[in-house]
UniProtKB/TrEMBL annotation:
This is diphosphomevalonate decarboxylase. The gene is mvaD. Residues 8-163 form the Diphosphomevalonate decarboxylase-like N-terminal domain. The keyword Nucleotide-binding applies. It is an enzyme of class 4 (lyase). The keyword Ubl conjugation does not apply. Its EC number is 4.1.1.33. NCBIfam families: mevDPdecarb (TIGR01240).
Length: 325
């Protein structure tokens, strides 16, 4: 019997990953850049044993259905190939997210699973190897191997596509992110399906790709300069562009709900009142607000006038994947 356990934190992209050029290997169309956060994380234990007749996957104490287990099994097949074993496995995962968050994150989940498997089978993967492995489970998971600011370099094949930490001289320690948990329902269009549909059908997709290098360069410069305004403006613009591509897809779709729009307006109003803060959104209606720590209480208070207190959760920069002994 071989066991390993790991914890990984979720990350939020400031420059989004949106679109794959290789679906099987999960190679992205563009580089992305994220901030790892400390508020939401996953702990995963994996046990490989010859007493198991098939793979089993438990999440928050409940055995998962065939579809969810299949995704994990496909990932475990890669791990088994690397570890030269045919043993079945039991995967026991716990998501530490506020209840009803609608944030159950594949990024933290797959990054923790990659770490746990590396430990269990003594695969000897370094961070780059772990990032490449996590990427095969879910693209954004490759960034959750690291803490702080992280860039996923798109690369051109399995070997060259992985994330690495960006040095920032501690800039991330000045920052916070306020999560507005606006909906806990299953998404209509998963990020996987949404990005595929957009790449295949959206006439705005090329525009997204064409402006990415400029956004990425500007965001990295903002990190180097510790320029919060430029960081926030670039992040917000990039998110709006990503969401714009979905409107021109066929059939068109959007992740925004009426509450998302109210939240965006609240952020703009706060800015007008002189509170620097900026929003971003992923493949769902929740809005995440980037703010300097010194203004986090002001932002939370303003948001809790619009939404209930338990919908407003703040996070700070988090650390990379860790093994739990
Ligand atoms: C909008 O990593 O969940 O959050 O690779 O298909 O598993 P798969 O997709 P996933 O996509 C995340 C998309 C995003 C932007 C981002 O995190 O960069």
């Amino acid at each position: 019997m071989f066991k390993g356990k790991a914890r990984a934190y979720t990350n939020i992209a400031l420059i989004k990953y949106w679109g794959k050029k290789d679906e099987a290997l999960i190679l992205p169309m563009n580089n992305s850049l994220s901030l790892t956060l400390d508020a939401f994380y996953t702990e995963t234990e994996v046990i490989f044993s010859d007493t198991f007749t098939k793979d089993e996957f438990y999440l928050d104490g409940e055995q998962q259905n065939d579809k969810a287990t299949k995704k994990i099994s496909t990932f475990l097949d890669l791990v088994r190939e690397k570890g030269q074993t045919t043993l079945n496995a039991k995967v026991i995962s716990q998501n530490f997210v506020p209840t009803a968050a609608g944030l159950a994150s594949s990024a933290s989940g797959l990054a923790a699973l990659a770490g746990a498997c590396n430990e269990a089978l003594q695969l000897g993967l370094d961070d780059t190897g772990l990032s490449r492995l996590a990427r095969r489970g879910s693209g954004s998971a490759c960034r959750s191997i690291y803490g702080g600011f992280v860039e996923w370099e798109k690369g051109f094949d399995d070997l060259t596509s992985y994330a690495k930490q960006i040095s920032s001289d501690g800039f991330e320690d000045d920052l916070a992110m306020v999560f507005l948990l606006l909906n806990d329902q299953q998404k209509d269009v998963s990020s996987r399906d949404g990005m595929r549909r957009t790449v295949e059908t959206s006439s705005f997709y090329q525009g997204w790709l064409d402006s990415l290098d400029a956004d990425l360069a500007q965001l990295k410069q903002a990190i180097t300069d510790k320029n919060f305004q430029s960081l926030g403006e670039t992040m917000e613009r990039n998110a709006l562009k990503m969401h714009g591509t979905t409107l021109a897809a066929n059939p068109p779709f959007t992740y925004w709900s009426p509450d998302s729009l109210r939240a965006m307006q609240a952020v703009r109003d706060l800015r007008k009142q002189g509170v620097p803060c900026y929003f971003t959104m992923d493949a769902g209606p929740n809005v995440k607000i980037l703010v300097e720590k010194k203004h986090v209480t002001t932002v939370k208070t303003a948001c809790s006038h619009l939404f209930s207190k338990k919908q407003v959760v703040s996070a700070q920069a988090g650390s990379g994947m860790t093994i739990i002994k």
